[in-house]
Structure formats: structure tokens, C-alpha cells
Design goal:
Blueprint: E1 8-11, H1 26-37, E2 41-45, H2 50-60, E3 66-69, E4 74-77, E5 82-86, H3 92-101, E6 106-111, E7 115-118, E8 130-133, H4 136-139, E9 147-150, H5 156-163, E10 171-175, E11 181-186, H6 191-202, E12 209-213, H7 219-224, E13 227-230, H8 236-239, E14 244-245, H9 253-258
Parallel strand pairs: 1-2, 1-12, 2-3, 7-8, 12-13, 13-14
Antiparallel strand pairs: 3-4, 4-5, 6-7, 6-9, 9-11, 10-11
Length: 264
């Protein structure tokens, strides 16, 4: 890390900034705001949609700058609350290939800033924006930045074994930490890829970048950063990628890191 601390700070949301379903703690909130007050660019970098990321940006007091949603596929202008770049792909080939492996799989696609289309009801329902039930043909009819799949009849180990045979040209996928979930995106798009675009625009040296995350979708982000930090609650495979491991999300691990450079 360059002297003076990080200038570009990428922060995952669920499992990192907050425990899912809970607000950001007062200590983490103070640490993030101290970093922003010192002039650092704090970039919320999440798998959440634009709609579900907005409340977190508001809670953090971020009213300008950049945010990355849908694992880097949607780049938000925070001041406007609107996307400035969307990396979409045709979901139809992935839906066809996944249905061949998992006939019962429930799919959902993001309609950026508007709603979610889905072929069924899945756990952790979308609480912000409309949720429209559609058939597979309608769901596959338009480009999307993100295709989610949930296999209600299976387990994560079973799903991972089956996915070894999955080949969808032009697309890539990442699985979740808890249960048989996966997210498909345009090939090459990831949190790390999107952060490099932001870093280049801002003109920040790579040596001044910091990333903190906990999930499998954070792996490219952790590889990208000059200094990478995994949460104690991250899977072992994610912790092994990071330069260090901080405290658990319930123990304010993000604040533990940021307080080294930024006074609250």
C-alpha cells in the first residue's frame, strides 16, 4: 500500500459491510465515512442489483462517485442513482444449457433499475422493485446483465459436480456460498474487471487500491487489488486468496481495516 493509505477502496456488501438482513453497524459506518471525508474513493462493489444497492449507498451517506452492482455488470453514477454502463448478454443459451442439467432450476433476470423477471419463487425474495413471473421464453427474450439460477431439488456439491460439463460461449458463471445458487454474466465481466475500469477513469495508481470481500464472487476483486482483505466469515478458498483476513462481519471487520488509515 502506498504511503497515506488507499485511494480506491472496493467494499462488498452482504457478509462484508453488513450481515444480510441487518443494517451497517455504527462503527463500520463511521469508518467508511471517515475514508470518504479523507478523500478516498469508496466504491461499493456488490452482487446486488441497482435497486437493492441504493439503500446501502444511502445508509453509508455516499451521494457521489461510483458503485458497481450485479458483480460489476452494472456501473452506477451514485449522484444520479442511474447506470452509466451495463454489460449485458443474451441469457437464452445459458438458460437452455442449465435447464438440460437442472430441469427444475428457477431463473431470474435483472431489468436494470426497474424490476426482476423470474420463472418461479425462490428464497430471499426481491423486496425492492416489481417481481414479474414469466415463462422461460419470455425470460430469455432480452439481454440482461445478470441471470440467476436456483436449483430447489439439489445441493451445492451436486450442482458443482454437474456444472463441470457446462459450456456457454460468451458467458461465465459463479456459484454462491450457501446452497445451490449460481449467477451467469457476460464472459470476462467481474468485480475485478469493473474496478479496473473505474481505477483507470479516476487515474489512481494500482498500488493505492484496497478491496474487502467475503464471497466467491469477490475472488477476481481480491486478485485485482494491491492489498486484498477477506472477512473471517469468508470460505477458506476466498480467505486463501487475500493478503490478510480481518474480523468477522459481526465484529466490524471492515472498520478494523479502515481505521488503520482513517480516524473516526
Amino acid at each position: 500500500m502506498v504511503s497515506g493509505g488507499p485511494q480506491l477502496i472496493a467494499l462488498d456488501v452482504d457478509g462484508t459491510l453488513l450481515d444480510a438482513g441487518r443494517p451497517v453497524s455504527a462503527r463500520v459506518l463511521a469508518a467508511v465515512r471517515a475514508a470518504v471525508g479523507a478523500g478516498a474513493h469508496v466504491v461499493v462493489t456488490t452482487g446486488r442489483t441497482l435497486l437493492t444497492a441504493r439503500p446501502v449507498l444511502t445508509e453509508l451517506g455516499l451521494n457521489e462517485g461510483h458503485a458497481l452492482c450485479s458483480n460489476g455488470a452494472v456501473h452506477i453514477d451514485v449522484a444520479k442513482g442511474e447506470p452509466v454502463a451495463v454489460q449485458a448478454f443474451d441469457p437464452a443459451p445459458a438458460v437452455t444449457a442449465l435447464r438440460a442439467l437442472f430441469p427444475e432450476m428457477i431463473f431470474a433476470v435483472e431489468k436494470v433499475g426497474i424490476e426482476t423477471w423470474a420463472t418461479g419463487i425462490s428464497p430471499g425474495e426481491f423486496s425492492i422493485g416489481d417481481y414479474l413471473l414469466v415463462d422461460h421464453q419470455a425470460l430469455s427474450s432480452e439481454p440482461t446483465p445478470r441471470l440467476n439460477g436456483w436449483w430447489p431439488e439439489g445441493s451445492l456439491p451436486e450442482m458443482l459436480r454437474a456444472l463441470r460439463t457446462l459450456q456457454v460461449p460468451g458467458a461465465s458463471w459463479v456459484h454462491g456460498e450457501f446452497g445451490p445458487w449460481l449467477t451467469v454474466s457476460r464472459q470476462g465481466v467481474s468485480k475485478g474487471w469493473a474496478l479496473e475500469q473505474v481505477r483507470t477513469v479516476l487515474g489512481i495508481p494500482h498500488a493505492a487500491t484496497l478491496a474487502i470481500g467475503d464471497g466467491y464472487n469477490d475472488r477476481e476483486m481480491l486478485r485485482w487489488a494491491a492489498h486484498s482483505v477477506a472477512m473471517a466469515n469468508a470460505p477458506e478458498q476466498v480467505r486463501c486468496l487475500a493478503d490478510e483476513v480481518t474480523d468477522h462481519v459481526l465484529e466490524d471487520g471492515v472498520a478494523t481495516v479502515l481505521e488503520r488509515w482513517f480516524r473516526t
